[in-house]
Amino acid sequence: MEKSKKSICIIGLGYVGLPLAVQSALKGYTVYGLENDTKKNELINAGKSPIKEEFLETNLPKVKIVATNDPAIISKADIVLVCVPTPVDENFFPDLEPVKTAIATIVANLKPGQLVVVESTINPGVCEEIVEPIFAKAGFVVGKDYELAHSPERINPGDPKWNVTNIPRVVGSFTKAGLALALEFYEDIIEASIMPMETIREAEAVKIMENSFRDVNIAFVNELAKSFDRLGINIVNVIKGASTKPYAFMPHWPSCGVGGHCIPVDPYYLIERAKASGFDHEFLKIARKINNSMPEYTVELLQDALNTIKLPLNGTAVGLLGISYKANVADLRESPSMQIIKHLEKHGAEVLTFDPHTPSYSTEESLEAILEKSTALIIATDHNEFKALAPSLFKEHNIQIIIDGKNCLDKIELEKKWHNL
Fold it and tell me: How many CA atoms within 13 Å lie on the side-chain side of 15?
């Protein structure tokens, strides 16, 4: 079949699905999107991006994507891509219901010979133990009635260099024919290498390994940050010093918490699946515990700093700069700021918030307003707007304490100018 006549349907038009839809359309595919959010569908159908992302804002107006909440659209597609979220609940237990629902919807609208690719992050074994059985229960045989593959999404919101067009990918499938079809598709739309995995379970394990690796290393430096605080050592300078070694060291940076849709979530999928097979991931659980402790530790640092100037946290106006989990994006998923707010409120602080990228979630309308009202500040997101703050502003607004939760200010320069202006 000629590429121009191929059609794809992407289930879930979020941070993963929408860039994939746009890139596929740019490459000549007929693209349908199945999305429950009708407002989002209206924007996409009008060529407007519901997500503030340069790639989307530039390219979505150039292509046509048919976005709908009608599942019958699935039957028009040669390839169906599942890009729904895979969150954890309040007890950090993996929630696979969005994936199960998406697969059940595909089964109810399956087109014979369709290639189904799960892009959602899942633990090893999900395609074999959960996805394929849903098809089988309906009487569909993998390799005969349809093909099933997994290519874990790789997207880095806000990254000016790496996006859906050029990040290498891996693909695994149940059959050789399914693997060939999946490779053909991804090699056609992505300008980077696509690595075939020997099994679909290996492909599932790749994303979990990537993000668990990052989580463990971030936990390591977060624990060092706590230790070095007691020792009076600037950990940022130490990391920079260690980075001068040209081999066997990869810098990771401490912060007020780990957010996003991957790092604080994916390790739990492996922890729980391994537990079901009789293995206890002690290391991963410790890393998660350390990283989950950082929002509370940030508030403890603030409380200790206020004590030195004889101010209680209770009743003090604390300005939180940044609500999204990552610099220069509006993504709130698993943002540490939410936990920081809870801990501040628990201690009776008057919490003020400002994020230029999420104004609807901010209590203050401007940076000037939050500085004017705050006695102390916590920088929870390293947006460019905050990194550029001049020490004179803090002095001018009588800010007493600053907790830089992202190490985005020059501490030495700040202390020198802030206190001596």
Answer: 20
What separation in angstroms does the CA of 185 have from each of 47, 119, 368?
24, 13, 49
Taking the C-alpha atoms of residue 125 and residue 187, their distance in angstroms, rounded to an integer, is 25
Query: Residue 293 sits in a domain of what CATH number?
Result: 3.40.50.720
399, pLDDT greater than 90: yes
Cross-sheet strand order for the sheet of 7-11: 65-68, 30-34, 7-11, 79-82, 114-118, 146-150, 169-173, 194-196
Are the beta carbons of 225 and 258 closer than 8 angstroms?
no
Q: Are 94 and 129 in contact (CB under 8 A)?
A: no
How far is it, in rounded angstroms, from Cα 344 to Cα 349?
A: 5
Residues with catalytic function:
262
Per-residue pLDDT reduced to its tens digit, 160-191: 889 999 999 999 999 999 999 999 999 999 99
Q: Which of 103, 102, 83 is nearest to 21 (CA)?
A: 83
Q: Which two tokens stand for residue 351?
A: 């919490």
Return the residue matching tokens 């990194």: 387
The predicted model gives 353-382 an average pLDDT of 96
34 and 182 both lie in a single domain: yes
Other beta carbons less than 10 A from residue 364's beta carbon: 20
Question: Whole-angstrom Cα distance, residue 35 to residue 14?
Answer: 9
Tell me if 61 is assigned to some domain.
yes
| pLDDT single digits (tens) 90-132 | 888 889 999 999 999 999 999 999 999 999 999 999 999 999 9
Confidence at residue 213, expressed as pLDDT on a 0 to 100 scale: 96
Domain extent, residue 226, equals: 222-418
Residues near 27 by Cβ (< 8 Å), separated by ≥ 6?
3, 188, 189
Contacts of 156 (CB under 8 A, 6+ apart): 162, 163, 167
The tokens of 321 are what? Answer: 């700069």
* Residue type (1 letter), 230: R
Helix (H/G/I), strand (E/B), else coil: 88: strand
**Structural domain contains residue 12:** yes
Residue corresponding to tokens 């992202």? 406
